[in-house]
Amino acid sequence: MTTGGGKSGESGESGMTVLRYLMWTVFAAALIVVLTYALPPFRTYQLATVGAYLCVTAGLTVLTGLNGQLSLGHGALMATGAYTVALVQDGLAGRGQWTLLVSVLAAIGTTTVVGGVVGLAAARLRGPYLAGLTLAVAVVVPAVASTWDETFNSDQGLSVVLDPPPGTVPFERWQAWLAWAGALVTMVALTVLVRGRFGREMRAVRDDETAARLAGVSVGRTQVLAFVVSAACAGLGGALFAVLAQSVSPGAFPLSLSLFLLMAIVIGGLGSLAGALWGAVLLVALPAVAHSVTEGIDAQRLEGNLPLALFGLTLIVVMLAAPGGIASLRPFRRPFARLRRKT
Amino acid sequence: MDRFVFLTFDGLSRGAVYAAFALALVLIWRATRIVNFAQGAMAVATAYAGYSVSAATGSYWLGFGVAVLAGIVLGTVTERVVMRFVDHSSPLNEVVVALGLVLVIQGVLGMIYGNEFRPAAAPFSRDAFTVGGVALLSRFDLFVFAAVGAVVAALALLFTRTDTGLRMRASAFAPDVSRLLGVNVGGMLTLGWALAAAVGSLAGMLVLPTELGLHPNAMDIVFVSSFTAAVVGGLDSAVGSVVGGLVVGLLLSYVSGYLGATVAPIAVLVLLVVVLLGRPGGLFGRSAARAV
Amino acid sequence: MSAPLLRAEGLTAGYGAAPVLHDVDLDVVAGSITAVLGANGAGKTTLLRTLSGLLPATGGRVALDGRDLRGVRVEEMVRRGVAHVPEGRGVVTELTVDENLRLGGLWRRDRADARRALGEVYELFEPLARRRTFHGHQLSGGERQMLALGRALVGRPRLLLLDEPSLGLAPRVTAQIMRLLRTLRDRSGLTVLLVEQNVRGALAIADEAVVLSLGRVVTRGTSIDEDLRHAYLGF
């Protein structure tokens, strides 16, 4: 899988770049706030969902695109974050908004630990073996929820207790703010990380492990770290999903969720954070479009299944036609993609 | 003790199916270095086709034949239309494309048949014979053993005793040399996919009656169990995959029987992790799951 | 001089954009041994790969017995009578000696003669007959070379493309193989295109030699000129 992003970030962290990130973030935040006032509640909720997805796709595209590790377990990592929020909120809710921050941080922490464990195993595995292991992790979620049903309440799942939003802010708008606060923090953190030394090391490991090792990069450490970072993002995304849905259950984190995430980052262009945004948008938009298409006709079986088939088809077509994703189709990226494929 | 005996036989019967399914994975892995992550979905699709024919004609065996035949067709099409054109420069590519196939197949099945569980009838009684008060095996279990045994024997004969088998092995090990010797390597690949998909379909027809029934996702867990079986066997070894299948079947049966059915997938995950980290080449193989 | 069995004209080929072979003309006379000599990277292996179709030519034409070989698939070559023994011998190490040899005759319609050819190879290479059930990776370098050569002979080729048969072999074994090639030429009229770095060994049996340098033919003939030998072959 050839991926983009190779030429960026060699310039170092000058004050200008930091300023530029800051301006972009402020601009994006302002845009989100404006949108939450302009859009009707349902659209605002969709916007919030994009934000939650973005945390996960951004983290996954760094792991898969820049470090070359394929994870099918990110749905399970999201579930970890979501369940943590549900459990912590159950104990803390009602004491003020700060409890939510604690819950989300706890979710990130738990997922980081789980991600570290999976990452330790993952760093020693390659290609299909890693895919198979993470697939097993994804499939095991309902079993875990049922086995420890006193904590996780098996298939029914848990409800997430939330304090009402401050002031007179409508609930959807509040949710969108929360989700996008998380998404923007993720994007800034990942951008800084990817452009720095760690990003270079990740790409070096992806391109040629032996060469990276000879250049003094600790391959195992880089891979575990990449997995941990990616897992933390997935945990945050999962936590935000719990806040959005106000409930968690194994059914919300099926294997297909992990496959959707993968599709989103492949189509967006592996390794591209901007691509992760497009992927997140697609994850929300495609089912919505399919829903509105099938609404008129009496075909309830199409609902849910049509996007599934479309996602799969898009994934295959993109992989066969442009393995670098949509981003690699842009004309100015082409020479680089070609160059890399040749070597 | 009675329970242990029963669980052992039950585990061997399940394991036989995992063995067949793992064998199908190994067939494709050996020929192409691809783990066919779509194999579960492909098997479900052919099972739907088979049960549709059974329902329409009233004949289980006609449906059974159709399912296996559909496997051959689906395997051929998958290789000819999709897999052949995947850029092999990174092992991720094939995995991603196979997962795309999973989504397509599950989506299409859902559109045609809906997402409810449909009953998957067994051709023989699943009531176990009892010997001296101990429940041992059902007629269906015997059928499973016979079918899997026949498949394993047929494949062994094909690969070790026939010219076509020699061509297939040569194509897998040394494609360029094989082409120079006049072997149609592309055709051998297609044949490998067709065979593997047919074996996968057969395994699907054998496992679905023992699970909850037909569902687009019905084989997800079976795939993970069989992948584990193949990894236990080393992914490169046909004998290993059969042994691996039996090991996984027994493990699942004991864990389900003594600890509860919900724990079974967790046990498979643990086994997979232990094997991958402890003995990544599997018990029989020499291939490298890990970096050197 | 009779018409050549193999004729290449203006052959150009390579990997990616930069050609390795430039405008190579080559005639191989039936029943002769032609040696292709040259330093590392001269394009010798590329020439053989292009002739057998493993590498598509980007320019020029190749004809066997006057019939154009362009567009003929690699799998078809063996049916036209061309056997290519690749560098590194191409023994399928996971298969047994017997399976490797059988593989060489699988394409043949005449099953009886394929079996007969198999028997002849076992007579020709006595050590192989004793190791029928050994796997390729259990053989010595010399035995592997015999196996690769024998496997090609099972197909009763008219033209044998042989890539560095002496690579990594003891001088005694190399001499054996060279002698054998000469015997095959004399007895059955086999035509051989022999790529070699072992110049002395190759010239000792070759009827004609072609010297490649940087992908171009710099000289050819029945004897190699003293100066050129110095310049391109280093002795």
TrEMBL record, chain A:
This protein's UniProt keywords: Cell membrane, Membrane, Transmembrane, Transmembrane helix
InterPro entries xrefs: ABC_transp_permease (IPR001851), LivM-like (IPR043428)
Main location: membrane
Membrane spanning residue stretches: 21-39, 45-63, 100-122, 129-148, 174-194, 224-245, 251-270, 277-294, 306-332
Membrane topology term: Multi-pass membrane protein
A single GO cellular-component term on record: plasma membrane
GO molecular function: branched-chain amino acid transmembrane transporter activity
Protein name, entry field: Branched-chain amino acid transport system permease protein
UniProtKB/TrEMBL annotation, chain B:
Alphabetical list of InterPro entries matching this protein: ABC_transp_permease (IPR001851), BCAA_transport_permease (IPR052157)
Coiled-coil ranges per UniProt: none
GO molecular function: transmembrane transporter activity
Spans through the membrane: 12-29, 36-54, 60-83, 95-114, 134-159, 180-207, 227-251, 258-277
Superkingdom of the source species: Bacteria
Membrane topology qualifier: Multi-pass membrane protein
Keywords: Amino-acid transport, Cell membrane, Membrane, Transmembrane, Transmembrane helix, Transport
CDD domains: TM_PBP1_LivH_like (cd06582)
Location relative to the cell: Cell membrane
UniProt keyword Phosphoprotein, yes or no: no
GO biological process: amino acid transport
GO cellular component terms attached to this protein's record: plasma membrane
Classification via PANTHER family: ABC TRANSPORTER PERMEASE PROTEIN, BRANCHED-CHAIN AMINO ACID TRANSPORT SYSTEM PERMEASE PROTEIN LIVH
Similarity section: Belongs to the binding-protein-dependent transport system permease family. LivHM subfamily.
Protein name, per record: Amino acid/amide ABC transporter membrane protein 1 (HAAT family)
Biological source species: Pseudosporangium ferrugineum
From TrEMBL, chain C:
PROSITE patterns: ABC_TRANSPORTER_1, ABC_TRANSPORTER_2
Segments forming domain ABC transporter: 6-233
Pfam families in the cross-refs: ABC_tran
UniProt keyword list: Amino-acid transport, ATP-binding, Nucleotide-binding, Transport
InterPro entries recorded: AAA+_ATPase, ABC_transporter-like_ATP-bd, ABC_transporter-like_CS, BCAA_Transport_ATP-bd_LivF, P-loop_NTPase
MF terms in GO: ATP binding; ATP hydrolysis activity; branched-chain amino acid transmembrane transporter activity
Biological-process GO terms, alphabetical: L-amino acid transport
Entry similarity comment: Belongs to the ABC transporter superfamily.
Protein name (database record): Branched-chain amino acid transport system ATP-binding protein
